[in-house]
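Supplementary Methods, section 5.1.

A reviewer requested that the exact input to the structure prediction be made available. We therefore reproduce it here, unchanged from the version used in the analyses.
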Amino acid sequence: MTERLDGPQAPSAKIADGSSTGPAETPRTKRRLGPSPTVAIAFLLPAALLLGIWVVYPIVYSIFRSLFDSAGTGFVGLGNYATIFSDSGTLTTIRNNLIWVVVAPIVVTTLGLIFAVLTERIRWSTAFKLIVFMPMAVSLMAAGVIFRLVYEQDPAKGLANAVLTTVHDTFSSSQGYPEARPREGDQSSVAADGGAVVTKQPVQAGQPVLIPIVGVKPNVLPGNAQPAKAPAAAGDLSGTVWFDFTPGGGGKNGEVDGSEKGLPGMTVEAVQNGKVAGTATTAEDGSFRFQGLPAGSYVVRLPRSNFQASYGGLSWLGPALITPAIIGAFVWVWAGFAMVLIAAGLAAIPRDALEAARIDGATEWQVFRKITVPLLSPVLLVVFVTMIINTLKVFDLVFIIAPGSVQPQANVIALEMWRVSFGGGNNQGLGSALAVFLLILVLPFMIMNIRRFRRGDS
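The structure derived from this sequence is encoded token-by-token as follows.
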């Protein structure tokens, strides 16, 4: 006989020995893992509220505000957006942002890849990574202050020009004396000639040459300058170039006095028939000597290069180099970040693939180009896109490093947005349009990064 069921009942689940365990769970009766939707909403509500206040509302209000004039009372529609693409200053900011987007992410990603690959082959890789990553611990404002000092024009203050001038002076011994000139007077034996200084009359070997110079600034006079010595009669053509000025007064013009300093490092030429027959350099006491000159008469000349300012490096903070200089500071800050991410991706690459390629005869360059880079492409893309987003939003470095006189040449969209709205422009309509324009530029790269992260999680 079969027992009649009075109502629908769930079938019993059976175990291996045939015994019943009671009603089996169906999808409708299955318990939900984790908190209930009500609890999840309760926890998410404060974050969603803050997100709406700090993100959603400013975006919506900026879009609304961009449709009005500077006072916020007159509706101008898309007029502010038209101004962005018609104003020459704003077009310069867009051009600068384009340079940033093209150059900075490529340089940062490339350096990060090089550092990550090379640090695998050295024992002190941890210390190297720590040093390269250390700038990330410094705020962008502090980094801007550091590089503002690095790019100072004066080599005594700016590290960049100190290095350049040191390298230059290593291969060039010329010492510049700007604004120096020969002493004028009837007794003077030299005269200016197109910026150079020449003897008025030809001289011969054994005839000492005196070249008095005035107008030398105290800060230009080298520290190694020694008291000048009058040239002695000798078989070679010789002479003295000195600063014809006696501190405290006294002395005779055109004559070497004991307290007057020689001018070291000056280039002296012996000219015959319009051609340079010999070249010498003045010593610390200003003396010079030509050796091995053929017999004859010569005109002694101090070339024009002696009276030009000595090499002082590059004008890093000038209009021409200001954008590359700031990009250099950006690379210094973010290269460590790229290196760490790429090194993490490099550690996840299967070593079997690399070793198999080496066993098959591939060179290290082929392994790097054909295996390492393709396997690292997802990480490289994430780093590259992240750097693009950072370059589009760059503000601190440009604002701090660029002097006020060249900020129009170094301007970027984020800085222009702040300057137009709050930095004296008082045109929040145009500033809001710039903010919306910047958001439109950043959004595609943000969406791309989010999709990459979701693919990695799946």
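Residues 181-307 form one domain. These observations are discussed further in the main text.
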